[in-house]
Queue: 3 jobs
Job 1
Amino acid sequence: MRAVSESSIQIDFELKGIRCRERIKLAPTPANLKRAEQHRAAILHAIERGTFDYAVTFPESSRRFLFSERKGAGYALETWLETWLERQRQHLKSSTWDDYRKIVNHTLIPALGRIYLSELKRADIRTWCEGQKAGNKRLANVQSVLRAALQDALDDELIETNPLYGWKFARKEAPKPVDDVDPFTAADQELILDACRDPQHRNLFQFAFWSGLRTSELAALEWGDIDWIRGIVRVSRAKTQAADEAEGTKTRKGTRDVKILAPALEALKAQKAHSFLAGGAVFLNPRTGQPWTGDQPIRHGAWVPALRTAGVLYRRQYQTRHTYASMMLTAGESPIWLAQQMGHSDTAMIFRVYGRWIPEATPNAGGKAVEMFARKFTNGNEKTKTTNNR
């Protein structure tokens, strides 16, 4: 037993053949040193009787679960989540890690953090979920993070089972009367572009309307991504507020080649005067002369003012992507081609989200196929009819 600082005393003892050193937050005065000695004596007595509980005596110690029959005993869920979250930092994109951080710090720890890791039950999670007003999507996101954290705790042998394995809480929800897809009309687009405060804002939004890129992808787009010969844009990065630099796209399929349509090409040519010689980002924040740092500066500095000036009903900027999709489908472009342009793995989302803009079959649908491939059958029927009439 000895003083290790002006505010703490270290005591040492042996448990199961292992020498343990722990600090007590007491100033090393003669009276406190005596108290520490008495505390050590009580620990030795409890060890001798077999009643010593490390986690109870030293709840903040890194050794508190080392001597438990189950490593997770006495290990608060809060402590594990903090440890696990820090471990995930090197494996996740900054934007994804930031989403995890918010869920852990603002939802899971306040709700369940004081429960011991080894004592967390499915019933605890169900009870908490039932008391929330959030929708199933939000609850699924929270459970997904907790499920991953508990699985890692299982792999580290801190718990015996993962209470969320193979189970998810979800309540019955009525179908949403309307969806989030609310594209801008051609007239709306013209009003928005004419209302832009700066020509760079106009170039950005015109390109957005005619390329279908996400706002994060627009912020990360560089001149080196433009293939002027093939007429395509290589989309391989995205920039969000949580990331210090551009990262990979939202999904693996998100890395794609997007055809540059005429209005998008016009916007790029106009933007050349502002950023092409620098050879970096295509779209810059006119106020700073630097690349946009994410979607929020674009929203506050360019998008909201343009819609307000144009007198167009406010919709989030992601609706430029919906507008692109609806225009392509209304014009009769292939859903398969559109899925590739937008970075979807298949057409399922195209039909589910944008199905109403896919034109109905025309009266002569199938006629071209008949004309090209069924001529011999038609001729044969006519020949048979002529023979029978004889």
Note: The radius of gyration is 32 Å.
Job 2
Amino acid sequence: MDFLVDEAGNLLPSIWVAINTIWPALVMLVVGWVVIGWVRQLVVKILTRKMDDASAFFLGQITRALLLIILFISVLSELGINTTSLLAALGAASLAIGLALKDSLKNLASGFLLVALKPFKKGDYIEVAGTGGSVDRLTLSHTYLKTPDNKTIMIPNSSLIHNNLTNYSTESKRRLDLFVGVSYDDDVREVKNLLLKLANEDARCLQDPAPLVGILNFGDSSVDFTLRMWVNSSDFWALKWHLMEQIKITFDEQKITIPYPQRVIHQAE
């Protein structure tokens, strides 16, 4: 029993030394973490006055990452760890680290390019490699898109740089092309007049340049027309759906046939 008391007495000074060493580092870590969060929010708030939200969010994350690195080095120094030798070891291992994080570094560099080139901003509807959605946020490694049916898509930043990117929101006007086929027995002049009439009756169809109707192709079972018009980007889908419905209703009323592919099979006797 006396042995245990003696050992406890010998350990107490060491325990107090450890506590006195750890608690300042722990307080520094907690306070630093909170302050860095505030700094990131402040940086994003300031940057949003000069750039779009997605770019500001990305630079805010860069600021947070750099401050966290400084914080962790400071905490290690407070704990008595020789950070100089640690940094030297990390420098010597930088090649291996770079190879291991090759894809992550590529995405990070691509993020900087996206901020610099500004191919899109938050809320823009973009399409890349067959995937489309509205830009939600740009992070250190990925860009997040929201689809019209409220799905979230994560795309690596490098994919946005190395693939063809289409932004449907940069221009205020878009061209709307509608395609419809009619029977060879129908009067093509009547079809043309009806399509132009439907376009001109809708105020969302812009008149400069004026709507255009032309025969696009002579198909196997139909004469294929295209109705081409310019609309405000915000009206694109609503006008397309409305005109498609009106074309079908009007053609039915005027006895104009929209044929469907047919195949005739002759059986030998």
Note: The first helix runs from residue 2 to 47.
Job 3
Amino acid sequence: MVEDDELLMTPGPTAVPPEVREAMAQAPLNPDVQAEFSPFYRDVLDKLSAVHGTDDDALVLSGEGMLGLEASVASLVEEDDEVLCLANGLFGAGFADFVEMHGGEAVVHEAPRDSGFDPETVKSAVEDHDFAVATMVHCETPTGLLNDLGEILSVLQDAGVVTIVDAVSSLGGAPVPTEDIDVCLGASQKCLSSPPGLTTLSVSDRAWQKVEQTDQDTFYTSLEPWRDVEIPDDQPPHLPYTHAVSNLYALDASLDRLLDEGLENAFDRHAEVAEFCRERGRDLGLEPVPADDALCSPTVTAFRVDSRASDLQARLESDHGVVVATGLGEMADDVLRVGHMGYNADRQRVAETMDALAEVFE
């Protein structure tokens, strides 16, 4: 075994590196009264901006990644706004639920769960409607599909549509076209390999303008209180609520790991390990859900296993101490998912996982 009694290879939460766990264990400052929290917090936001790859405002919210999805919709969608929801997976479709919940009109543009979107078809949909906002997912973890969003984001940007992108399972593991995204969402427990508990965002000026125009009928799930947060040099920051300090310590250490490696090196590592994982799976007669490798995510591989996922998952853990994930929704028992994101984008860890799977098949 690589390090611990069990090898956690799920597509988030991931295994957490020892130095990140150690950082989380340090005595927490009180961010509401201790001035020394301010330079630490400002440094975390600067590192986060570097990982997001944008000069847009960086935010960290206290809450698991799902908070970012709802908060972005709650903050940007006015009652009766038409919202384009691009859906070729569970999380893309889930955006429509948030839109309807907050009074918007969701127009769902669907594509098969094993293929991407056609930019021309999206362009036609935009021309036929007056969309205020559009939502989409970069990496659909239930199927291991990475959407190519470049042309689509250009179409939406040209039309003046504010874009929300769930990059929770790709940020830090694959290039994200953040320069064309108004609200880009990440989370601590995925490619950053930090414990669950924090949502990360980058927010453009255009998104802030839409926030100002939108009636905010919620507090905790609103971005508006974070718009003009002050971080003085010699005083505590003026935060909307007490932040999750220990999680921030862990996030800081995770960001250091990633930036010390270099983003391009991290992207290459993820791509190489993902290809290795798919090759080992095909040696066992398993195929990824997207048949085209160009659509396969570098952060998670979803293998088709036809009604065997729960059994394989249980045997991997009980017999080999390897923890992987099954599918979600209607594909729950037909997909076995290996997470190779962040700390787990490691050839040795993936090799041990696939060796265990080979023994289970034998």
Note: The mean pLDDT is 96.
